[in-house]
Amino acid sequence: MSNQSDHHFDAIVIGAGMTGGWAAKEFCDKGLKTLLLERGRNVEHLKDYPTTTMQPWQFKHRGKIPQEIAEANPVITRCYAYKEDAMHFFVKDTDHKYVQEKPFDWIRGYQVGGKSIMWARQVQRWSDYDFEGPARDGFAVDWPIRYKDIEKWYNYVEKFVGVSGNYDKLDTLPDGDFLKAWDLNVVEKYFQNSVKDNFKNRHVIYGRCAHLTEMKEIFKQQGRALCQARRICQRGCPYGGYFNANSTLIPWAQKTGNLTMRTDAVVHSIIFDDKENRATGVRIIDAHTKETTEYFAKTIFVNAATLNTNAILLNSTSKRFPNGLGNDNGLLGKYVAFHNYRAKINATHEGHKEFRTTGGRATSAYIPRFRNIYKQETEFLRGYAAGFSAGRSRAVNYDGIGEELTNNLTAEAGFKPWSVGSHMMGETIPKESNYVNLHETQKDEYGIPSLNISIDYDDNDEKMIQDFFEQFTDMYKKAGFTNIQTRDTKQAPGLDIHEMGGVRMGHDPKTSLLNKWNQMHECKNVFVTDGACMTSVATQNPSLTFMALTARAANYAIEGMKKGEI
Amino acid sequence: MQRRQALRNIIVVSAGAIIFPHCKMEPAPLQGYKNLMLNVDEFKFIGDLANSILPKGDLPIETPEPVQEFILNMVNDCMPLEDCKKYVAGLRGFISLAKEKYDSSFSKMTKENQLALFNSLNEKTEETDPEKVSIWESMQSFTDLTKRFTVQHFTGSDYFMTNHLDWQFLPGEYNGKVPV
Ligand SMILES: Cc1cc2nc3c(=O)[nH]c(=O)nc-3n(C[C@H](O)[C@H](O)[C@H](O)COP(=O)(O)OP(=O)(O)OC[C@H]3O[C@@H](n4cnc5c(N)ncnc54)[C@H](O)[C@@H]3O)c2cc1C
Q1: pTM across the whole model
Q2: Predicted ipTM > 0.85
Q3: Residue A87 near ligand 1, beta carbon < 6 Å
């Protein structure tokens, strides 16, 4: 196909999504010849957002997924963002099958940009109350890092990404480097005050989000413009108003001249050389021709998103590692955890009838975890964060038929009362019994064993849901909200799209796969910096932490290569 | 594009009608709605019904497709096959009901009668024969769905969203406390 030198690089990054984009950018910025491998197609900023300028009435089904597709793809159809406008960015159930030993809704995006195209852009930092969780409460293993280790990398990432937020000065949710915030609306502020007056250590704050609300030089250099609050980000944004890898990291890395991007390249495994006792490269299968090719590099970053990263490592077997790369302790694929998103609460607010909102914004309010922060105080471990939003829409009178109906619809009918709602984002406890492995017989279209997923809720999660209902009902009642409705969606794990773990970080090679630099204990030139590395999951939307860990690990690897240690 | 497709469907069907003029009892099915297999008269009828349910008068409503096309796209593409079948049964029942009660095709009935017929389906049927009850229920679901999609086509239009629902494609800003 091409001469051998075309197959040798300083670094190989597997997966051109949010975290792989970061690794590639860091390497390219520091002058490393980098190969970025992506199993999906290219999605070029601006060029490949086919629906981005479409008005709602221009969609044939006004957003709805056709029945035939929904029936053939029940898992992806359950994802709230899988609608007619952005369905082309999601992997269908029929595209790359997996085995559900227990029900698991695996939501995936296989393309340059990965899931960063469709994500909801909520970004919060962890605090030491999160990093210290496993050690304090006696689950999983101790995190090998603390907030001080990652703080500057949070800054580093936020400066480039652009994060809109308020300086809330909370010990549970450290402030970042923020661009200005949109308004919380009058009812959200009312609830904020009600909670402050009635509860200790509970805070209703503005939900920090990865949107450009102010222009800075660094964003100009990326060619991005201010967010116009269209709230159809999942289609890709012609302004680059929110952060995705396609509008930022990838073109940035390309501009250095150091990036080679190979799309339609399904990574089969990492090649381990028993003689050299290190990983030497990556084996890929061309998605179309099914041809196998090998690429070589000094360092390999695995960023295929949590479960596919697990799959690649499990499939990377050698004499030295018969059970998967770096898997001497047999823990690879185990201790996978996620966020419990099952609980919702909605209500009506009869007050503030004299006000409404206008315009749009890309976020709403957020309530950081308040349970078991300073000490254990409930029957369940850990706790939950929650969203909160209030809104009010125009009333429309649908009664009648004929001219009466036309008149009713077009008559000014004022506004409905405010409706308010929250959803729980609960921390789940990583357990050995929540795992993924390779299926013994089922293979995918490339002959790679299918991933088998066996992940479930437990009693701790059930108790947490009850507590969320009780606490939020109480908070809502104290605010005078009426018509309070709680709902347990019973959704399977996975639909939170925050699966993490399986290749966890830790101090000890006997009980973890990665050291404090996201480097494999047993294979020092392989790094895992996506969600697979997470020792525990906290309650925050995780991607900001994945990005910060990636930038940190990439710079560590660069230093290591310079010193000849890697 | 969708409009062109619909036109093409009609042309195909009317060409068929010219070649087989004796098939008037059963005009050839309209292509494109494979779960419904309507004929061109039925297609037209949906449009007539929608315009009776929700007459647009002089309102400057422009939509990418005529209302009957939208309704049928939604039913054919977005509903389970069972429900599509029920929809067609209800549609055919409704056309027969018009003939039975008013000895007329729907489009030739007075507006009052059209609406009276439509509204009569809000009532429970007095029939006890399970087959007739089932047809009645199909007609009810047919009128409900046709009204729902007619209204959606209207309220989801550029005109309605912009003038009645404060729709802005590029709001740019957010105001969280604005007097009503
Ligand atoms: C609808 C939605 C809303 C979300 N909202 C939020 C939010 O508000 N906040 C938040 O923090 N997170 C959110 N997320 C999650 C967030 O998108 C992910 O955490 C983030 O994208 C993870 O980055 P990643 O690089 O690990 O994975 P991805 O961005 O998914 O990228 C992984 C890439 O690896 C490629 N790949 C996989 N396997 C292989 C292989 N074998 N060979 C080659 N390439 C491979 C994939 O094709 C993909 O391009 C949301 C996700 C979705 C879908």
Answers
A1: 0.95
A2: yes
A3: no
